[in-house]
Amino acid sequence: MKEQMRAQGEQMEAQPRVQSEEVMTYAETVRDLVRAIQTAGLQVSLPAPHLDPHSTSEPPHPPDTQ
Fold first, then answer.
1. Inside any domain, residue 63
2. What is the pLDDT of residues 19-45, one digit of tens each?
3. The domain containing residue 17 runs over which residues?
């Protein structure tokens, strides 16, 4: 039981290290891609994000017709 708890503790300590290494690798890859795009002189246009209208708790009101 004690050995199993020790193994679990070691695994929990190692997990953030592995995740940190994965994030660093991802960041390096993104940096390399950005440099390649800049070097090639390409411009990347991203589509505008789809923004839903804000919802309210009030129902819509018809326009005044007076």
1. no
2. 888 888 998 999 998 888 888 887 767
3. 1-41
* Angstrom distance (rounded) from CA 29 to CA 1: 42
Place of tokens 């940190």: 20
* Residue that is written with structure tokens 């002189």 in the block: 41
Residue 56 lies in a domain: no
Residue 55 lies in a domain: no
- Sequence-ordered list of residues with C-beta below 8 angstroms from that of 44, at least 6 positions apart, any chain: 37
**Number of domain units in the chain:** 1
Task: Please tell me whether the overall predicted TM-score, pTM, comes out greater than 0.85 for this model.
Answer: no
From CA 20, how far away is CA 37, in angstroms rounded? 26
Two tokens, residue 13: 């300590």
pLDDT tens-digit map of 49-62: 666 665 666 666 66
